[in-house]
């Protein structure tokens, strides 16, 4: 780092104030060296709590520094993966349904198969792809509870526990046997949302957002929400902390 700062000062003729900013940012980054993909991910998670403007500045400084080191052989990575990092774009809050809207949605579902399927999505927060991979072998019962093994992105597994009755209803109505396409499920949920008079764009992922919003509203620790949703980093989960909604226990 010292050589790089000297390079900026003597070769690039940067202002003293600029050098000071670089030094501060690089001192923070030095805690994550030697650089690996894992340490880089941790650094990105660390700065994710900063404003977008600050993240942009830090990424610019650190990427310039790493490229300078790579050009001179101080670090040897075949791929300069750090150049792929970008500050987050402005994001709209996730669309979700309130408890009332969820109940309204389910009240319009006259097909037992889709009613059971939607209840399963609402109460587990599963992605459609995860639901379609489920089999009865992924389910174990323990008293009034059911444990579901979910295989998420990258084939990573997580466990979630829900009321036994929800899973038994899904079994009874063939959710684990009769596999329909993701497109069909999306079409059906839009159809039922329209019948329920819900004036929002509703997709299967909306039910996942609703599950997350419910957890946050109930005071579930964010790291637990991350685990239940199968997010790789807290950065993705953190967006739900901005949601304010009214939920009640025993949702649907």
Written as H for each helix and E for each strand, in order along the chain, the element string is HHHHHHHEEEHHHHH
- N- to C-terminal separation? 56 Å
The CATH topology of the largest domain comes to: hpI Integrase, Chain A
Mean pLDDT: 86
- Total E-strand runs: 3
Q: What amount of the residues lies in strands?
A: 5-15%
CATH superfamily of the largest domain: Intergrase catalytic core
Percent range of helical residues: 40-55%
The main pleated sheet reads as: 3 strands, antiparallel
Q: How are strands sequenced across the largest beta sheet?
A: 1-2-3
Q: What's the CATH architecture name of the largest domain?
A: Orthogonal Bundle
Annotation field: number of helices: 12
The 3D shape can be described as elongated
- How does the helix and strand content classify structurally? mainly alpha
Q: State the low-pLDDT regions, or none.
A: 244-251
Describe how the helices and strands are arranged.
Blueprint: H1 2-11, H2 16-29, H3 37-47, H4 52-71, H5 99-108, H6 112-124, H7 128-133, E1 139-142, E2 145-151, E3 157-163, H8 164-172, H9 182-195, H10 204-217, H11 222-229, H12 234-238
Antiparallel strand pairs: 1-2, 2-3
Helix pairs in contact: 2-4, 6-8, 6-10
